[in-house]
Amino acid sequence: MTGTTVGDLGEIAVVDRIIAATGQAPGVPVGPGDDAAVLACADGRVVVTTDMLVEGRHFRRDWSEPDDIGHKAAAENLADIAAMGATPTALVIALALPPTTPIAWVDAFLAGLLEESARAGAALVGGDLVRGDAITIGVTALGDLGGRPPILRSGARAGDVIAICGALGSAAGGLAVLSRGFRSPRALVEAHRRPRPDYRAGVRASDAGAHALMDVSDGLLLDGERMARASGVSIDFDSASLPRDEAVVTTASAYNLDPLTWVLGGGDDHALLAAFPAEARLPEGFVAVGTAVDAIGSGARVRVDGREVEQVAGFEHFRA
Amino acid sequence: MTGTTVGDLGEIAVVDRIIAATGQAPGVPVGPGDDAAVLACADGRVVVTTDMLVEGRHFRRDWSEPDDIGHKAAAENLADIAAMGATPTALVIALALPPTTPIAWVDAFLAGLLEESARAGAALVGGDLVRGDAITIGVTALGDLGGRPPILRSGARAGDVIAICGALGSAAGGLAVLSRGFRSPRALVEAHRRPRPDYRAGVRASDAGAHALMDVSDGLLLDGERMARASGVSIDFDSASLPRDEAVVTTASAYNLDPLTWVLGGGDDHALLAAFPAEARLPEGFVAVGTAVDAIGSGARVRVDGREVEQVAGFEHFRA
Fold first, then answer.
1. What's the predicted TM-score (pTM) here?
2. Are residues B157 and B135 both part of a single domain?
């Protein structure tokens, strides 16, 4: 099939091809191919989240292989399900593709998406394919709470331990490496291309009694501020406790940057940010990185080592 | 706010604005604003479908007002839920917008989307907003079967009555009118801009014992062929029974076209195509338009007045 494009095959044939590659997942009453899919949700509630990725903004075809982009598209949605304390169960995908897109690209993208979904225990149950000028990927993920309450970002209380599960800054470091025209350190580039969230961490946090939980998708400071604001508290981070990958530290130093720039500002690792009662035993994978305190004044919601964020050395704001 | 754009306000502020306009729907455990929404699905199953609309391909800002585009984006997804014999309950929306998009456009789009969702009884429970070069709208709709079995497109049997609920050809006529630079007949232009599916028709069909059900989104012939193929039957349409709107007939004639071109080939009205047992009493809104028969030969799955489709006078294939 080398060289064949989406335009050559036609959208209907490409959809048939995707459905054939997807297969019928066990335990899914109605999978792809009808007007809609039907999914079991024995809990009586379903968790749902959606995200869109646009070529040139969220990924570049010259920086990421198609299977990496498939992994990433699935991961960032599935991570949001985990961040509610739920287990991912399914996803649907809406895809706009230029007619010139190689079928081989679509196949590899789909393989990556299916691999990441399988890692999370979720089935691809439906989708839509249209023409567009830029590759645009809309993923909606669904999840199951298994009888547990959803853990919101608004539940943190003064006195809570703030904890993190997962890497911080590796994906941002990888993006910086690629932006400078390099391909290594490999660990950082891979972290950017293919984040690997721990999809079971949300349930573990829920079972350990977490008061609040959220996916770190826009950086620890920005998302920490969101949790603080939603919860009506302030959050004090202890920079010495923050997970610092060795490659993050050495690469940032080589670029003459404070590693905290990436650790505090980079979000695409999809770490989980949680607030636990002070007496809770932190579940596997979580490390304490700060404390929730009574809201201070009107402005500052997040502090690092007792200082307001604007004063943190080396911090570069990643906000778009 | 006249003149203010998405880029002026920033994406985070636009999202806050959308969440504020959306509000918290009653009966939705967790609405917009967290990592994911939580939706009740007492049935123990949830119906899910997704569709993407790209500016320039599925709508044009100079041909449709933003509230019309909001209606259309909601309608085409909600219609797919109805086509399973289910009731729409919720939707999530992923939106790529150029920074130059006026906030007034976003507000009107959202108002249209919310109005159509309310007409269907569905709540907007979440979304994502990113930058893109073309307005791209990814909608995922969810629905509830209320204890009924899902009605698939694959259930038609030889001897079934084939029936239609809703208009055929009006939206295609409206598109033809706009393509020629006209703005009337108004009824056709409105049908193109703002389809009005009957979201309760799927449940009525299910309750009346429909064997098969599907949304007509790509034209009666193409979608009829899909139903026939999925069901392993052929479908004979009786052209005299097909609903023919007066504006469709007169406008097609004025353009020197056979009205059947639009009636058989136009799909954006989102009529419902159903197969009922011969003895069934057709529910409100459905009219018999043909019969399912034993599959004939290998090729022809759909006939009109006993003839294979290629021979139908005036038929122009709308397939993309």
1. 0.93
2. no
